[in-house]
Amino acid sequence: MSATPAAAAEPGRATAWWQNRWVRFAARRLLRLLVSLWVLVTAAFFMVHLVPGDPVRAALGPLAAADVVAARRHALGLDDRLLVQYWHFLRDLCTGQLGDSIGTQLPVGQIIGQRLPATAELALLAFAVAMAIAIPLGAAIAALTRHGRARRTELAFAGSSVVLGAVPDFVLGVLLVFVFAVQLHWLPVAGRDAPSSYVLPVLALAIGPAAILSRIVRVEMLAVLDTDYLRTARAKRLSGLRIHLVHALPNAVTATLTLSGLLLGSLVAGTVLVENVFAWPGLGSSIVGSITNKDFPLVQGTVLVYGIGVLLINTVVDVALAVLDPRSTIGVD
Amino acid sequence: MKNWSRAVRTPLGLTGFGLLALTLFTAVFAPLLWGHQATSFDTDNMLAGASAQHWFGTDNLGRDIFFRVLVATRLSIALAVSATAISVAVGIVLGSAPMLLGRWLGRPIIGLVNTVVAFPGLLLVLFFAVVFGVGAQGAVLAVGFAGAPVFARLCHTLMAGVAGRDFVAAARVSGVGSGRILIRHVLPNIAEPLMVNATIGAGGVLLSFAGLSFLGLGVQSPAYDWGRMMQDGLTGIYVHPLAALAPGAAVIIAGLAFNLSGEAVARSLGVQIDVPWRAAVTPRRRRAPAAGARTGPDTDTDLVLDVRDLRVAFPHGDAEISPVRGVTFQVHRGEAVGIVGESGSGKSLTALAVADLLEFPARVDAERLTFLGADLRDGTGHRHLLGTSLAVVFQDPMTSFNPAHRVGAQLAEAARAHQRATRAQAWQRAVDRLRAVRIPDPRRRARQYPFEFSGGMRQRAMIGMGLMGTPKLIVADEPTTALDVTVQRQVLDMLQEVRAADGVAVILISHDVSVIAEVCDRVLVMYAGRVVEDLPAGELADGARHPYTRALVAAVPDMRSDIDAPLATIPGQPVDPAHVPAGCAYAARCPLADDRCRAQDPPLRTAADRSRVACWHAGEPLPILSDLAALEVDA
Lengths: 333, 635
Ligand code: SF4
Prior knowledge:
The structure holds 2 protein chains of 2 kinds. Chain A is mainly alpha-helical. Chain A is built from 14 helices and no strands. Mean pLDDT of chain A is 79; it is low at 1-13. By secondary structure, chain B is of the alpha/beta class.
């Protein structure tokens, strides 16, 4: 009579493979990824067609000769019926072709290939730094200020994290440049070469999310510290360090992970602004130029890359959550 | 609206709304007052630093930056508010789609909204910036549309909550159209949370807008907002940092103004956070033992636990409340002592205090609190003693195991922490202990996570956890209350078995007299933080002398045979620890209460047979219903 729930949790026993919760979870998640991908690709396609007027005319300017515009229209396939164009767009995408930049005539894939590493590096480093600050900080503050202890510490933390969380990354970037590059001459103002040139852009991106995330970690940690199983851990008279690090932190962080995925997504978007502050040679500094110059193939390609990046991050976070906390993610069907 | 005015009076709200008022005031009046200074060229002072004449210096055309920042407030705020309005309007339209268009059309729209929400806002802004083109107007539309999905989802959730309510159903039944229902009944009910979110959202929009202008995709010269000014200032940051920093500061302040105001209202809308006094549970400084206190040497070698005048207090507002008010008892080797009482009687707190598990802000005082001769009042230093010799079994086995670790590991770590066992030895002992508490297939079970165990198995595993060391005392706090009736017996039997085999003493906390009578040798009956009676368990049925004990016993139909009886109920309310009456705490519910009871608290007196009772009328016959009936028959 006491063994009933265990049977249900045994994967693959006496049940067909498609009833396995992991398989169903993977299928569901994959379907969502595909739908999102389709929405993204379709949006990127229609983005150009939603622009009022003739995109080629807009790109080449009012002075371009009519036959040049017509020829370019034809070359880009803009004379075909919309559905045909959509079909061609999808087909080209599947073979990895993103067209040529109107401005430089270079293949969009090549331009993006050159710039993507710088952006990805920036976003991932910033994410790592944000997590490395937020998790220990939030957990420590929670442990120190529980039950109204250390009121001042709590107030100082709450105040500074609210303010830092509200400062937009590009304003923070400008501030950091002013303090550490202009005033103190410790770090370079802009560019991407020596390791020291990474410090300011990464911090500009990481500090805001770190502030927000550390507040979440604190709240989660406080909730975990009040659970029955933490009392059990105390009843075992484990050391304080073990109680906090082994018993409390993993449970607090699982809940934080969902949000950190969102944060990483917005970090990717934040690189656009921060790259422009620091003249960082990534996708963000090129997309602004291509929007102003109406270089639509390049804009399309860049938007797709950003979008796919975000979708992949969301998927990875979901999978990580499922692995870390299988019961609440995939246990309930 | 009541919530908004209440929110203004909190420190958070005061800051937020103060900043907001300042920002809005500047937005309205700055262009009127200082429009001229902001645009006039001071050609003698181009790119000048801060001076008395120009507080924040001038830009490359000699225009005063301080006044430009102030004047730019109007455009920055106006653009942000317009964009937010677009977001909210489009959001309401999209979010109400399922309601207006029916499920078949509405579902895909909400699905699309949920897909789009997964993308970060700034990417959506860039996307729409391409569609609507560069410039202030295009940027307002871009930011507005990019914010719409978030509001659409919010509206949808809020509407779904309202749609199920009675007045909407009533309107629908009486044939009111969906559009009218939406406007007349649904929107007014979601207006408040929507406004709060729009206020917080406006702060975010302000930042996005500044970002867009900073990138050169928003406001174009000669118009200027804060983002535009930052971009212009950044190129000259070496020469003239204030030109970039001053508008940046303005962005932060205005953003905070919206954020904090919204947050303050959101908080006052939400549930009041009122920490209940019992939510707190770990150890705290105790009163040092009084000099020359008669603690005497421990001559009694069988004595496991010695508690004298134990008090537990919690801060309560400015004052303190004492849910445990002077509890004295001893537990000897192999003895099972039950503590029974209603919820709020202080029995669980007594157990936690004895197990040294009460946390700040709880305060534990005792004249004596000794476990195996070690004085627990001095706080630290008994970690290993308690870790190996005192086991605790909690009420809810479903929540008392850490969901993130394997059951075996949670047992094994106790041995690792206190007995210097190797990883393999500790694991081996864990499997062995699981077997000892009759977990089938303990090797496999040890590797499972708690959620794979049933409730009864977990509670037995919890007992097994206590057996990792060599316990002398098991404190079991309502160990069967959360379990199925069929499983309760197993757990009780398990406790009995452990006790019989190793001479382990047990303190069993329960509100259920029949459980206590089953397992225990002796019973402490607690009421309002005190022991009111202490008697052998065998005498509960007919030897109880305190009216409260007798009421508890009477509430169980046949306590000897029926362990599954419903909870004991006694007319009247238990005492609120914040308002303990003078005199006997039970007087308000006691059929024997007289004036003396209400004036003087009866002391706990020890009788010749070492049983104790605190009642002025101990053992006097109760005017129970059957007696009254008998009287009536006689008459
Ligand atoms: S002291 Fe009086 S009021 Fe209190 S239990 Fe005894 S009889 Fe009742």
